[in-house]
Design goal:
Blueprint (H helix, E strand, L loop, with lengths): L1 H9 L3 H23 L2 H18 L9 H19 L23 H12 L3 H12 L4 H8 L3 H24 L5 H4 L1
């Protein structure tokens, strides 16, 4: 089905392209948000990626590779958006945790600490974490989607994990604001 839509879109069928985007849009937005950590920037990156995809779709040789090809385009748009805008503002969003067990839910402090650690990573390192940990792709699939060598994907994942661990450990050692006065 997806291959049929891709073939039709390659021939200029706007409705087929719209159906393609509808099928992958939420995932693309989730990926962009997890890389950029900002809803507005993520929406801009997704829109840019979709426009680029429409323009470059005729050059896609294998319709079955549409999603990996689109993810490469999306990641490049995220990197460009990150370079354009150096503002990393925190946004508060309510997360639906209905049905989640207490073991599945991080405390607000844990989420804040994890968010601070992730924000310290470069967009390139966040991208590897998103594709590997959020989407559950293998490192070779991550390398393919990010259009980087496998060794680079391994290195970035290692560095991102180590940097995130260091940031979390540093935050754990730093007393909360105001607590140092109580001692």
């Amino acid at each position: 089905m997806l291959g049929t839509l891709v073939e039709a879109a390659k021939r200029g069928d706007e409705e087929a392209f719209g159906a393609l985007l509808h099928s992958v849009g939420d995932t693309c937005l989730a990926i962009a948000f997890r890389i950029l950590r900002d809803v507005d920037l993520a929406e801009d990156a997704v829109q840019t990626a979709f426009i680029t995809a429409w323009r470059q779709l005729p050059s896609l040789r294998d319709p079955d590779r549409f999603e990996p090809w689109l993810h490469k385009t999306l990641v490049r748009a995220c990197y460009a958006e990150a370079r354009r805008s150096r503002r990393w503002t925190a946004k508060v969003r309510m997360l639906d945790i209905e049905g989640a067990s207490s073991a599945d839910v991080l405390t607000v402090d844990d989420r804040d600490q994890l968010e601070r650690g992730i924000r310290r990573l470069s967009p390139e390192h966040r991208a590897v974490l998103v594709f590997h940990d959020y989407l559950g792709l293998t490192l070779s699939e991550v390398a393919d989607r990010l259009d980087i060598p496998l060794g680079t994907a391994k290195s970035r994942l290692h560095y991102a994990t180590a940097a995130l661990r260091s940031a979390l450990e540093a935050d754990a050692r730093t007393p909360a604001l105001g607590q140092e006065r109580l001692a």
